[in-house]
Each structure stands twice: as structure tokens, then as C-alpha cells.
Design a protein that fits this description.
alpha/beta, binds aspartic acid, 412 residues, binds magnesium ion, single chain, binds adenosine-5'-diphosphate, eight-stranded mixed beta sheet
């Protein structure tokens, strides 16, 4: 007998037919004698719809109330899955975030602070199945909190860690982690194993198959994590420790995968004074407003002239960012704020980069051959990212995938 968490994403929960199919998968694990907790997402498209309502209600909205609205999608699917399982004769019940509770701090991008598993232990003692809405928790004030987009993955891994599960299975609409988004590059290859470290980096630069924080948690707790399809009964991708790859004597590509992220917006401050403290005066208020600045480029001013400062923020934080910057415009002394949401960040990730030079150069040359202009660059030990015009997303991902030798062999 094992203790497992099964997490089902939005596509898997979209409609009663699919929920019935999910119930079948849950039943199968329960009948194998496992202790099962199920974490569910809202139906595909539902969270987007709810977010859109908030935006229409006000361009800058209270995150506390946003959480009240957007947490509702998961409440619906948890109840529906419990009803379906009960209809199949199984002892299943839903438990909302506040009922366990899943304690969270902060709104809209809340962090899980702890999960009480006493209720779950009782459920397992009675051979029951617990259904838990992903994406939500409860603050110390008793308010609903949500965990950021894609947060059900994090709910699942946190729950698995708290209940000392043997593994956490993430069921989704693809059958594993690929070398890039298989919906963009049909020649992407499925990876049998990926290290926590690589998955963490891939997720953080936009491979939305797992929320970044869920991978960080899995890594910290050494929780075996598997990504697999809820539609096809085939082996998925295991996210594992570094030693596991070495144990199996696996060769590593220098680049493991390519990811892209359309959720970044470019902000340029024109005419920033060339003096110590000017940059700090810009980023201070953004940090206070909890806005994550990612890529940063500053033009070098000629003697006595002003410079331009370009950086990226999450598109969802653009309105907040501009509001915060408008507030300090006079004090800092820049003349204009330009914004552009038609940009995409494309990244190559791989642990093998540590010992290989020329990865970035290859990226720049490959994009240059296609006449794709680079607007900003960032690098880390195992990653190179460029910001480019959004219209080149598919082309850039495809040519880089080929350039780094990641394409699947031609079939037949
Ligand atoms: P869920 O609703 O199950 O949480 P998501 O839409 O959040 O599903 O994540 C699954 C999607 O992630 C896939 O449909 C795929 O388009 C996308 N994706 C992006 N990069 C990758 C990758 N490297 N491997 C697999 N899927 C990826
Ligand atoms: N429903 C939430 C979202 O779409 C959480 C999730 O599905 O992981 O972001
Ligand atoms: Mg997801």
C-alpha cells in the first residue's frame, strides 16, 4: 500500500464526462489499496474567465477580493468529483482549503505556510478518499487566498509533503515533460527523466506544465514527482534527483529544453538621470508593490546625458507597475514610461551548460539568421533567455529546438 496524491489539471476536469473519467482513475488507485488524496483544478478556461471579470470590474483591484472570485472554480470541481465518486459507490468527500486547513499567507500569489493533516489521517483511517481544491488556502484572518496561476500543482506537492506521501502524480493534458511545448513543436521529444533543478529552471522560464514553486517544494522534500496524461495510459516523466541520472549512466544533452513565456511586458523609462541612486529609486517602489522585475537593460549615457532603463515585469503586474512608477516619476526625474506587451521571452535550459561554452552565442546566431531582433538578454549558470517580438515566438522556439539538436528523429 502506498500513500499518493493525484492532481488533475483543468483540461482533465472540463465537464462531467471528463470528471467521470478522472473518477475512474482515482477508483483504480483506491482499489489497489492505496491511500489517495486528490487535488483538482478548476475546469479549463474557468480561472481565466473569473480573472477577466475582476479586470472588467476595475483595472487595479483588491487582491483579497480577487481571491474570493478566482478560488471558486476549484470549489466547483472538487464537489463534482466527490459526487461522481460517491455515485460509483466510493467513500469520497471534498475538503476546502479552510477545512483542513491549508494555511497561506498573502493574496493572489499566496505562499503555503503549513497544512494540517489531522482531517486527512481520519479520512484514511476510514478508508476514504479526500478531494481537495487546488490553488487555494486560508489566511490567518480566515480569508480565502490563492496561490498564483497554475498553483494547483503547488497545492498537490505541498499536500504530498505534509502527508508524507510516497509520490505525487500530476495528471495533465500531455503525457509528460517534453524538450519544449509539444503544441508548438510537434518534433519535441518526451523526456523520461528530468532533474528537479532543470525542471525548476524550465518552469521558471515558462514551461507551464508545472508551476515553478511546486518543483521547488518537490526538490526540497525529495518528493517523487511524475507528470503523466489523464487521457492516455502511458508512462510519464519522472522528476528526479541529479544522482538518479548518473546512476542510470544517462548522457545529457547540453540543452535539455526550450521554453517561452508570453506573460512578460517590457517597460522602458526614458531619460533617467545619470546619477547614483536613480535605478534604486525606480526598483524600490516596484519591490514594495511586490512586483517581480526580471530582465534589466540600461543604456550607457554619453557624458552629461540621460539614459534609458528597460526591464520586464509580469504582464499581470503591468498596470500596478505603471501606477507605482507614475508615483515616483517627479522625484526620480525620468521623462516618460513606455510599455510593450507584444514581447516574449524565449529560454534555453540545461545543466550541461555549466561545462559548455558557446550556448548563448549559438542562440544569438540562430536568431540572427532568421532576422529576429533581440530586445533584452539574461543568463544564469544553466539558462540563457532573450526577449524578442512576440510575433516570432513559434519560429524562434522551433529554430532553437533544431539548433540545439533536440528534434525527435524523423519517423518511418
Ligand atoms: P493543467 O491544466 O493540467 O495544469 P497546464 O496547461 O497548466 O495543464 O500545463 C500543460 C501544458 O503545458 C501542455 O498542454 C503544454 O502545452 C504546456 N507545456 C509547455 N511546455 C511544456 C513542456 N516542456 N512539456 C510538456 N508540456 C509543456
Ligand atoms: N485554476 C488555476 C489556474 O488556472 C490553478 C491551476 O489550475 O493550477 O491558474
Ligand atoms: Mg497547470
Amino acid at each position: 500500500m502506498a500513500r499518493i496524491v493525484m492532481k488533475f489539471g483543468g483540461t482533465s476536469m472540463a465537464g462531467i464526462e471528463r470528471i467521470r473519467h478522472v473518477a475512474g482513475l482515482v477508483k483504480r488507485e483506491a482499489e489497489r489499496g492505496h491511500e489517495v488524496a486528490v487535488v483538482v483544478s478548476a475546469m479549463a478556461g474557468e480561472t481565466d474567465r473569473l480573472v477577466q471579470f475582476c479586470r472588467e470590474a476595475a483595472s487595479v483591484y483588491d487582491p483579497r477580493e480577487y481571491d474570493v472570485v478566482v478560488a471558486s472554480g476549484e470549489q466547483v470541481t472538487s464537489g463534482l468529483l466527490a459526487i461522481t465518486l460517491q455515485g460509483m459507490g466510493l467513500n469520497a468527500r471534498s475538503y476546502m482549503g479552510w477545512q483542513l486547513p491549508i494555511r497561506a499567507s498573502g493574496h493572489a500569489t499566496g505562499l503555503i505556510e503549513g497544512i494540517d493533516v489531522a482531517v486527512l489521517e481520519r479520512v484514511f483511517d476510514e478508508a476514504g478518499i479526500a478531494i481537495i481544491p487546488g490553488f487555494q488556502g486560508v489566511t490567518t484572518e480566515g480569508a480565502l487566498a490563492t496561490l498564483g496561476r497554475g498553483g494547483s500543482d503547488t497545492s498537490a506537492v505541498a499536500l504530498a509533503a505534509a502527508m508524507k506521501a510516497d509520490r505525487c502524480d500530476i495528471y495533465t493534458d500531455v503525457d509528460g515533460v517534453y524538450t519544449t511545448d509539444p503544441r508548438i513543436v510537434p518534433r519535441a521529444r518526451k523526456l523520461d527523466l528530468v532533474t528537479y533543478e532543470e525542471m525548476l529552471e524550465l518552469a521558471s522560464v515558462g514551461a507551464k506544465v508545472l508551476q515553478t514553486r511546486s518543483v521547488g517544494l518537490a526538490m526540497r522534500y525529495k518528493m517523487p514527482l511524475q507528470v503523466l496524461s489523464s487521457f492516455e495510459d502511458v508512462p510519464g516523466t519522472m522528476i528526479v534527483d541529479d544522482d538518479k541520472l548518473e546512476e542510470r549512466g544517462m548522457e545529457r544533452n547540453v540543452v535539455t529544453g526550450i521554453a517561452h513565456d508570453r506573460n512578460e511586458a517590457r517597460v522602458t523609462l526614458v531619460g533617467l538621470p545619470d546619477r547614483p541612486g536613480a535605478v534604486a529609486a525606480v526598483f524600490g517602489p516596484l519591490a514594495e508593490a511586490n512586483i517581480n522585475v526580471d530582465m534589466i537593460v540600461q543604456s550607457v549615457p554619453r557624458a552629461g546625458e540621460r539614459s534609458d532603463l528597460t526591464f520586464t515585469v509580469p504582464t499581470a503586474s503591468l498596470a500596478h507597475s505603471v501606477a507605482a512608477l507614475e508615483g515616483v516619476k517627479g522625484d526620480v526625474g525620468f521623462s516618460e514610461i513606455l510599455t510593450d506587451t507584444n514581447v516574449v521571452k524565449v529560454s534555453a535550459v540545461g545543466v550541461g551548460m555549466r561545462s559548455n561554452a558557446g550556448i548563448a552565442a549559438k542562440m544569438f546566431a540562430t536568431l540572427a539568421e532568421r532576422n529576429i531582433n533581440i530586445l533584452a538578454i539574461t543568463t544564469s549558470e544553466i539558462k540563457v533567455s532573450v526577449l524578442i517580438p512576440e510575433e516570432y515566438t513559434e519560429l524562434a522556439v522551433r529554430v532553437l529546438h533544431t539548433a540545439y539538436g533536440l528534434d525527435a528523429e524523423d519517423e518511418g
